[in-house]
Request: fold
Amino acid sequence: MLRIHFTGVDLARVRMAGRPDALWETILSFHRLRDRRDARLFGEWRTETRSRLNSETRMLGMLIPGRGYFPDFLTPVEGQYGWDMGLDALRGIRPERMRHEVLLLGAGTAPGSAVAPRLREFMDGGTKHLPRLLGELRGYHRAAVEPYWTHIQAQIEAERAARGRALLDGGADELLASLPPMLRWRAPVLECDYPVDRDVRLRGRGLLLQPSFFCRRTAVTLHDPEQPPVLVYPAAAQLASAPPAGGEAARPVEERRQRTLGKLVGHTRSVVLRAIGDGATTSELARRAGVSLASASQHACVMREAGLVTTLRHGNAVLHTVTPLGAALLKGGAVAS
Reply:
């Protein structure tokens, strides 16, 4: 069990991440790649990713075990601002911090295992192994995460919209209470299902909530209590959450989208797409667009199939949000009247 202890100041400093964190998604997807569970969601993704992998991942496999602790330096706080900034921060990691965190990883390795000598070599080499590690990260990211990035962004945007509504409805207390079931808000403590028993005291620093597409079943936080507090948790993504087959660049997916986009041409659907704005339930969408509830639901369904809208269950209703593709279409004025 993980228990995160809040003060009044911490509640005022709870915030949602503005975007998916590319490094967290990359590291957590490496767990999903080796995990045989969730075949319905990740089966095709695993097959496609393995077929694209043509670079070495042995160092990643050494530093990211199948379960349990992996070094904090792999997911620097700068990663929330983008892939390049995250890699720059990783490139500048202090040798003593790297050695300490790899020692922690080694402490969980069974004596005499084949991994221990490689970990020792990595620790003794200081930062000389960083270029290889960065190369493996880039190669793996290009194969496993980059082709699906638009889909990942859409799921995180939907999650942000749902949590933002909870925040507006009842403040930070309601936001924390609305998180997925593995997270339980019992003020002033947020309890999380966790593989070890641990208490984290925020001490006025607040908490960054980082929804993640590849995080599953349990939340994740940094091991070092002195690092800026972050809680990575599974985005709800209850509808259409599996990565699209073939990634964003696959021809069959694009052909299906183009066929569905053809259905969108017309004034009404243009109005409906714009009416979604920063998020709308089906009833709100019907009211804003001036159409019936059944019509709003039908239009939202077609746009979801086209990849323009993501739908997430929010309480007893569903919340529709515009995906990056839908936003780009609106900005480009591509929907004809």
